[in-house]
Amino acid sequence: IFKSFIKIDYRVENKDIFIDLKKNVNGMYLKLSERNGKSRNTVLIPATGIERLRAVLDDVINISSSHAKIK
Is 23 helix (H, G, I), strand (E, B) or coil? Predict the structure, then answer.
């Protein structure tokens, strides 16, 4: 049995981004997908890794914001 808790879709430039928080018999996981034309790529992250992903994304956002201000 699969259950979806969160489903968010949005577009960035020419890519469609899909974020899903799901649960199956093995547990909860985050599914990140991007579609560019006909190709689709997906990454599955176990729930135990979501907080670490958030910390890494916070670092990336801080660095990219700093570089954007320099230009």
Answer: strand
